[in-house]
Amino acid sequence: MSSDASASSTPAERAHELSLADAYEAINEADDPRWAYGTGFADPLAGVDTRLPAGVDGADLAAYCLMLGDDALIMSHRLQEWCARAPELEEEVALANVALDLLGQARLLLSRAGAAEGAGRDEDAFAFLREPGEFRNVRLAEAENGDFGQETARLLIFSTWRLALLDRLAGSRDPVLAAVAAKGVKEVAYHRDYAAGWVVRLGDGTPYSRLRVIEGLAAVWPDVAELFVPHEVESRLAEAGVGVDPATLREEFDAVIHHVLTTATLTVPAAAPPVENRTGRGRDGVHTAALTRLLAEMQSVARADRGARW
Amino acid sequence: MGGRAGRSGGEMVSAREVARAVPDPELPMLSLADLGILRAVEETGGGGVVVTITPTYSGCPAIGAIRADLSAALRAAGYAEVEVRTLLAPAWTTDWITEEGRRKLAEAGIAPPGPAPARPAGPVPLTLGPVRRLVACPLCGSGDTEEVSRFGATACKDLWRCRVCQEPFEHVKEL
């Protein structure tokens, strides 16, 4: 649906037409009937001009929105699994709040993916009706939960990386992505402060708390290298001024992680094996069994009773 | 709505006035105008209204209720066609909460937000260590308070405690 849909107007006209008011005017428009597992978004962009920024392929933009949306969706689900399991009520509330922010980001990104794809899929179809091999999230997000020390380590890595990414994406030529990113920067900055605070508290705490976060860091560190290797879609969209090349995030990521770990009297784990030596990446749809199990639970109700409404 | 909506002596209340008075579902002491999420209220003629709102947080679960409440209030006031649009940019900030809204929050025992932190040039700065914000206790007025948790019962609030009157209280996070 990409290029021919906008062939009749100039790039300047198209940019003007893609105002956010237009792009978002129908979000949440259809309150009823609602899909039982979903959100009230019957078609978030119904009746809206969903043409693409000049020179951008719709399939690429859809794939890119799924990457960033799946990162948020899957990480959100792992954080939701802490409900009724966190060490203290305050931390349970905190992790649930972080999960809620990420779920909100995921909903907007998956909806944008559906509009860019132009095949009639909405956020619920993407979240609940895709197979594991169709998900594009990084493997860091899907790994099984460990203990609280490991979760704080993962959240520090995830939020440091995502914050750097969203901060650059706020300058995207796609006004929808730019708006979602600018909003997300404020939220993820808060998540990063929270996670960094806990890593320092645990690392510079008791011998036992220190051991928990050291082992937690070691457990998640092998998934770090993958975060910075661009998929070809990411490279093309970065070239087009719409996406971000994740390789450009490494310097900021390393500086923040070094600062936090030094403050926590910890050291950065040894470098993980290069990504090239591993068997595929999450961005290619190559996942671990952990994602299959996660989706089996997350999608079970939606798949058991497809199209149910309330 | 407190009876402000609807026809009064046969005269129609303006759509803007109706929309402004709709209470926030999670902070019902605040109107949507107090909260600063109303961007525009346009009467399109023939009983039509287009309301534009900006959500507080990406995942704010109240946004659906806000849309429904806006539609119901405007329809009750005699506007037949109500469209609620969402505008994400520029992103909402707590700086948009009005003075009146801040007063109502404090009256309800919720500490209002201070000024949202200014963003310096360069990467988003990391905040490590204890929070040094001055948050006055909304119950006794003391400034001798401490943060208990960076997150609270809703996305927009965190938890504090007053060292003087010993009461815990909520505070609207600066965003």
Automatic annotation (TrEMBL), chain A:
Gene encoding the protein: paaC
SUPFAM superfamilies: Ferritin-like (SSF47240)
EC annotation from Swiss-Prot or TrEMBL: 1.14.13.149
Organism (species): Sphaerisporangium dianthi
Keyword Oxidoreductase: yes
Entry-linked PANTHER family: 1,2-PHENYLACETYL-COA EPOXIDASE, SUBUNIT C, PHENYLACETIC ACID DEGRADATION PROTEIN PAA
Top-level enzyme category: oxidoreductase
The organism's place on the tree of life at top rank: Bacteria
GO molecular-function terms, A-Z: phenylacetyl-CoA 1,2-epoxidase activity
Keywords from the UniProt entry: Oxidoreductase
UniProt protein name: 1,2-phenylacetyl-CoA epoxidase subunit PaaC
Automatic annotation (TrEMBL), chain B:
Domain MIP18 family-like: 20-83
Annotated PaaD zinc beta ribbon domain residues: 130-173
Signal peptide: none
Xref: SUPFAM superfamilies: Fe-S cluster assembly (FSCA) domain-like (SSF117916)
Domain of life, source organism: Bacteria
Listed name of the protein: 1,2-phenylacetyl-CoA epoxidase subunit PaaD
Organism: Sphaerisporangium dianthi
Gene for this chain: paaD
